[in-house]
Design goal:
By secondary structure, the protein is mainly α. It contains 22 helices and two strands. Strands 1-2 form a two-stranded antiparallel ribbon. β1 and β2 form a beta hairpin. The chain is elongated and about 130 Å long. The termini are far apart.
């Protein structure tokens, strides 16, 4: 028996046969990674001498990406996966994709429903071919496809690109959204998030489209933190006066509400009212302390913590503010006074006044003076005699 084969040098100069049907009907549909995998694998199948070439190294793809690519090609009927470990693939004869007219007849009902959503827009044959892939390859139902197209048009306008829709379809397939009910549930939630986010921008008078990052934040507030749309809209007033209102700013505001367990609208309104009272108290305290700046949010939170921790009246805080007027750091002095009174279990104004009066007296008595701190010089007996004799010399009439 004689074994004949091409040398590797001859193989490298050889030509890989690619069916015209693949070039005309499949190549433009394939993602780039799948196209590269198909052509490289086809070359290896036609030239066994190259079978030892590692496809993952040659194409710079990991094993998972390679498996996904061949799985996609299998769905199209181009290959058959004989074994998963090791991955063994058989290339199949290529059949033509059903003609557009045949496909159109099959999806007449879908096309009629889509036209009612598209209005005056008409999908091209290429766009419809991609849309059919959502059904035949991804497994999304026809009714779900209609919901998908409707959602994309409502959120991005009637001229939204088919590429964007295809991206959404792939996301749905990854998340297991295939049926009409799943699609409607997702679309309804998405539209609530989209409209809510859009309303925020409208209130802040911020131009521009809604970004995916902004939608992600809105989704977090609703699903993870439990805020209703009404509560989020109510909280956005906290951001309205900011120099540059943003979703990031509102996220910090809602975080403070969430951390305090205030997620429903009634509790949130009550919390905001309490905080408004705290801010007004802080504003008066700052005036009495001689501070010209407005109290910051964290300072208001600290003042609120004093009221809660030490169980003291607001009049004591106002007195502490008066006592701190003229100090180098008025707010820091206030903090020290309140802590000291809290540690001494002082809860009324009279006791606070007596304590501060005692503090002031002790502080005054401990101040250094020139008299008390003048260092007295000590003289020796010889020096004293010299001074006395110096006096005698002054009195001598010579």
């Amino acid at each position: 028996m004689v074994n004949c084969m091409y040398s590797k040098a001859a193989v490298l100069r050889g030509k890989t046969a690619v069916d015209n049907v693949f070039v005309l009907e499949y190549m433009q549909k394939l993602p780039e990674s799948c196209l590269r995998v198909y052509l490289f694998g086809l070359m290896q199948s036609q030239f066994p001498q190259l079978s030892r070439e590692d496809i993952t190294i040659a194409l710079k793809l990991d094993g998972e990406a390679l498996t996904k690519a061949f799985s996609y090609l299998r769905e199209l009927g181009l290959v058959s996966i004989i074994s998963d470990s090791p991955l063994t693939v058989e290339f199949l004869p290529i059949t033509a994709i059903p003609s557009f007219s045949e496909t159109k007849t099959r999806y007449d009902g879908l096309l009629n429903e889509l036209q009612s959503v598209l209005k005056t827009r008409v999908f091209t044959a290429t766009e419809l071919s991609l849309l059919y892939d959502w059904i035949e390859i991804f497994g999304i139902s026809e009714k779900a496809v209609v919901s998908l197209v409707k959602m994309c048009i409502e959120t991005n306008g009637s001229r939204v690109s088919i590429k964007y829709m295809d991206k959404v379809a792939r996301t749905w397939a990854d998340e297991g959204i295939f049926t009409e009910n799943d699609a409607k549930e997702f679309a309804n939630n998405y539209m609530c998030e989209f409209k809510g986010a859009k309303e925020l921008k409208k209130r802040w008078r911020v131009p521009g489209n809604i970004t995916e990052d902004e939608l992600s934040l809105y989704r977090k507030w609703r699903k993870e933190w439990g805020f209703s749309d009404e509560a989020i809209i109510n909280a956005c007033s906290e951001v309205a006066n900011a120099t540059r209102p943003s979703f990031g700013y509102l996220d910090k505001v809602l975080r403070s509400f969430f951390d305090n367990g205030k997620v429903d609208v009634d509790a949130l309104i009550e919390f905001k009212n309490d905080r408004s009272k705290t801010f007004e108290l802080a504003r008066i305290m700052f005036l009495r302390a001689g501070l010209k700046s407005s109290p910051r949010r964290e300072q208001c939170d600290e003042i609120d913590s004093w009221l809660e921790k030490y169980h003291i009246d607001s009049e004591i805080l106002l007195f502490a503010a008066e006592c701190s007027n003229g100090k180098r750091s008025p707010f820091g002095f206030m903090r020290s006074l309140i802590k000291a009174w809290g540690d001494k279990d002082i809860h009324n104004l009279d006791d606070a006044k007596r304590d501060f009066e005692l503090y002031s007296k002790n502080a005054a008595s401990s101040k250094p003076t020139l008299t008390l701190n003048y260092s007295m010089r000590k003289y020796t007996e010889e020096e004293l005699n010299s001074l006395m004799s110096f006096g005698d010399d002054l009195n001598d009439p010579q």
